[in-house]
Every structure is written in C-alpha cells, then in structure tokens.
Write a structure and sequence with these properties.
436 residues; alpha+beta; Aminopeptidase; OB fold (Dihydrolipoamide Acetyltransferase, E2P); twelve-stranded mixed beta sheet; four-stranded antiparallel beta sheet; 22% strand; globular
Length: 436
C-alpha cells in the first residue's frame, strides 16, 4: 500500500482528543487547575507508533499566531475531509504556552516565560510535580504550589505537568516546536541550539536558521528540551498579527510533521500556503554575533524601518537611548529589532555561516572530537560536571571559541566562571528529566 493510502486508512482509525477552551484568570492552586484545563489545544494520535511532536504556541502572550496556527492544524487533522493529510504515524500534541498573558495580550505578566528554563528552576518545578503525584496516589490533599510570587511560575508548572504526562505516553522519539512571532517585519526563520539533529530538522523545513541564540540568552525553553536529547526548534513566523504569520506557522507545523515522516510529504503544500518570498534569498544558516541588552531605564528606542535581516554597517546609527545614538557594533544583519514595550533585547546582529564549517563540525562531532576540547589553550576539565569544561581568560577569544563551537560546545558564565558546555550526546540530569 502506498504511504498516501496508508494515511487515508489511518485517518479513520486515529484517536483524536478535542481542543480545550478557556483562559485562566484566578490565582493560587485554583489558577493552576484552571490553567491546566485551558493548556491543551488538542492531541491527535495515529494508530501506528512513531514520533511525538509537541507544539507550543504563545509562550509570549502578545504572540497569538502560534496558538491560532495550532488550532488550525488540529482542526484539519480532525476534519473528516482531510483523509489524505491525516496523521498516519506518531502523536501530535498542541499546547498553549502562557495562558494568563495570552488572555491579556501582553508579552508576560511578571517575567519572560522564555527565560526561566534554567536547571535549578526546572528541577524545583519537577520536584513539585512529583510530590503532588505522590500525595495524590496516597490519597492526601494536594499542597498549593510554593513557587514564588510570579504568574509565570504557575504557568510553567502547568505546562511542564502537561508535557510530562504526554511524554510518558510517547511511542517514539520526542520533538518540540516552539512557535513565536516578532515585533518587526520578518520572513519566517528558525532558531536552534547547534546540535546535529536540530540542524537536520532545520534544513528539512527550508527556512533560514539562526544558530547560537542559547549563548546570547539564558533560560530558553527549547534549550532545556535540547538538554534532554529531544530535537527542538524555535520558529518565528513573522510580525505579530501580520496577515501571513498564522499561515506561516501553520505550514511550519505541517512541514515538521512531514520531516518526521508523520504525514505524507506531498500533502503539505495542499494543507497550507507557501512560505512568503524572501526566505530563499537569505543564507541558510546564520549565527548570533552580538546581542544588545537593554533594561527599562535605558529608554531604548529603535529607529523606524528596520526588518529582521536588514543589512547594517559597523557604526551605522540604528537606535537611541538615554545616552544618545546607538550604533551597529559590527557589520552584519539585524535580528529581532525591538518595536514593542516589553523586552530585554534591543537587537541582535547575525552573520552567515559558511557551509564548509558546518560540514567540518559535523565530521568532528561524529568522530567524537569533543574529547579534544581540553587540548585547547586555557580549556581544562570541569571538576564537577562531565558535560562541561572551564575556560580561562586566554580561552575567551574568537579563535578558541570558534574551535569549541566546531567541537559542539557553547559558552556561558556560571557565576564568575566562564564554562563551555557540550550541546549533544549527553545523559540527562535525572532531576531535569520529566520522565522520572
């Protein structure tokens, strides 16, 4: 039987869980229960086992396009007339990210929900979930979550609870898709931690891809899932509320299912509109070379007219703040210039990555060359972590950092100490594994 025929047969057999309506407006334990009920957009399960694709929309509440796109995808998978596009393998799970912020059309309530996925915080959240399960099994009343004063803490707890429940039902590898939009005009593009499996998925989507975002920003949700060994992509579908953003994110979701061999690849074009023009005119891979960090007291304001990937020259005036003109620190392309009130990133500068370096790094990583990292000047073994190395000041140079990137490491500060952390081939910390 052809794959399209198998898909048609599976359409009549797949189990479908309908979308869940509602928004969370209460607080405390009641708010947690309410947000959990509203979290799920829908779930579709094919009869044949396969990958589980977890799609999360609107992690930022002023970005409704991700949720709207996922509602369309789930509705299409459920539609009796969509038999040839039906899921014939694996599971698709669609979840809302920040329900409280989404209901109020703000980026976040108390803290950015895409900056709170560090090791200590996630470990505390999962410990809370495990304790709640133990109390439920013992017949004891649940304790209110003690996670601090922020709305996002409850949102994150609810989201992790849903993810944990789903991955325990997975019948194959897990993949995560994090859907966003930007405050500036943009073609769709992906952001990813530079692992080989993420690169492969990004290439199959056919969008421009930005590497190194996890070095510029701490606590990103996709990076947490990467640490579990799950392929994870962030995708920016266009400008907030632009007409093309929802269709672009809808197509991204279908294209990801096709890349994972969950739906027939030839049917994706019939399900959605093509990506907008301009995607194919940009470099396939770019890397973040600069982040302009801001705080409210800076009174930062971008000059009008800059889109994502607009070329800039070093010294070019591009913004202003209370100290005067802000100029581009280097030549390259602007990424995510800020045209909204909330945000900690004024803009980024990215530059193309030559394909030969991507090929060379793939060869090195497949050969296990990460073991050579401590041969580099100023790089030595971490005394407490098998996935990291310590970096002396002499190692914090462009050539040494470039070599570490080739070997599969990314760098960050751990307190006052710079460390390099491996991106792939890791055994997940048991405290951070939702399966435990």
């Amino acid at each position: 039987m052809s794959r399209a025929g198998a898909a048609g047969g599976a359409a009549a057999r797949q189990a479908v869980e309908p979308p869940s309506p509602g928004t969370a407006t209460a607080s405390g334990a009641a708010a947690f229960r309410e947000s959990a009920a509203a979290r799920r957009i829908g779930t579709c399960r094919a009869l044949e086992p396969g990958p589980m694709l977890i799609c999360i929309g609107s992690l930022h509440g002023n970005e409704p396009a991700g949720t709207l796109a996922l509602e369309r995808v789930i509705a299409s998978l459920q539609s009796p007339g969509a038999s040839r596009r039906a899921l014939f393998r694996g599971d698709v799970v669609a979840l809302r990210g920040n329900i409280r912020a989404l209901a109020r059309d703000v980026r976040f309530m108390d803290e950015d929900m895409n900056r709170v996925w560090g090791r200590a915080r996630v470990a505390k959240l999962l410990a809370t979930i495990r304790e709640t399960e133990k109390r439920r099994q013992a017949g004891s009343p649940p304790l209110p979550p003690d996670l601090g004063p922020t709305a996002e803490a409850l949102e994150q707890l609810s989201l992790l609870t849903e993810v944990r429940a789903e991955v325990r039902r997975a019948r194959g590898p897990v993949c995560v898709l994090d859907l966003h939009t930007t405050s500036s005009e943009s073609v769709p593009f992906s952001t990813l931690t530079d692992t080989l499996q993420n690169r492969k998925l990004a290439v199959m989507l056919g969008l421009p891809a930005v590497l190194g975002i996890e070095e510029a920003l701490r606590g990103l949700m996709p990076h947490y899932f990467d640490r579990l060994g799950w392929p994870s992509l962030g995708v920016e579908g266009g400008r907030h509320r632009a007409a093309g953003s929802v269709p672009a994110l809808e197509r991204v979701t279908w294209a990801t299912m096709a890349a994972l061999n969950m739906v027939p690849a030839g049917e994706v074009a019939k399900a959605t509109a093509p990506f907008p023009e301009g995607c194919d005119r940009l470099p396939r891979f770019m890397e973040v070379r600069y982040r302009h960090s801001i705080k409210p007291s800076d009174e930062f304001k971008m000059e009008p007219g800059y889109d994502n990937f607009t070329p800039v020259k070093r010294g070019q005036p591009i913004a202003g703040d209370r100290n005067g003109v802000v100029r581009a620190p280097m030549s390259g392309r602007l990424l995510m210039p800020l045209y909204q009130r909330l945000g900690e990133d004024g803009f980024f500068v990215v530059r193309p990555v030559k394909p030969i370096w991507l090929t060379f790094s793939r060869i090195l990583r497949n050969a296990g060359a990460h073991r050579l990292a401590t041969w580099l000047p100023g790089v030595r073994r971490h005394p407490d972590r098998t996935d990291a190395a310590l970096l002396a000041p002499v190692a914090r140079t462009r050539p040494i950092m470039g070599a570490l990137h080739l070997l599969g490491y990314h760098a960050r500060l751990d307190g006052d100490q710079a460390i390099a952390i491996r991106r792939e081939g890791l055994v997940p910390d048991p405290r951070l594994n939702p399966l435990n």
